[in-house]
Amino acid sequence: MKIARATPEDINALCDLAFAVDAINAGSIPPAEGGEKDEWEHIGAGNLLNILHDDTPASLQKESLDICRRCLIRLLEIAESGHITRAAGNLEAVFLPSNRIIDLEADTLETHPSIDQGWADTERLDWLAAQDDIDITLGNVINLKQPDLRTAIDIAMQACIAAVAIKFTAHFEEMVARGEAERLPDGRYRIFEKAT
Predict the structure, then answer these.
(1) Are 100 and 109 in contact (CB under 8 A)?
(2) 86 near 24, Cβ under 8 Å?
């Protein structure tokens, strides 16, 4: 699945949102209107939840509403600064096991072993391509020492696949001749079940 790549603004918005939620959860609230944007006020861990869950006395209701308003305004300002969902979707795609980008077994953020293997194979292939005195031939047919080694390898792989397909076709044709299978109009074969 392809998804749109997050912009730096999207990533910054996601990080800012995470910071703001953590700060609010730890008991800090954004500054009042006109205050310095980065000077958060600490009211004590759990106090915002207490304000939201408890019946606030009438004398503190205005202050409680102002605290909630400041928090909500800050969260919405962050949300407007980028596409948070796109950044979160990118992060999810990186960690999706089927994409094999991140080694989910590692305790730290590491690339998937298949990516590491791919880089190692690329280094080997680059080394081989740079050698002037090595001549490799597969099956006495495909010479890998050509100007474009990667194209030669692709040709060799296709030749191997074709050879296997020829062997399978010959095998199935033998089965057809023995009455163990039939060739279908679309080129596939149906194998008859053997009586037990």
Answers:
(1) no
(2) no
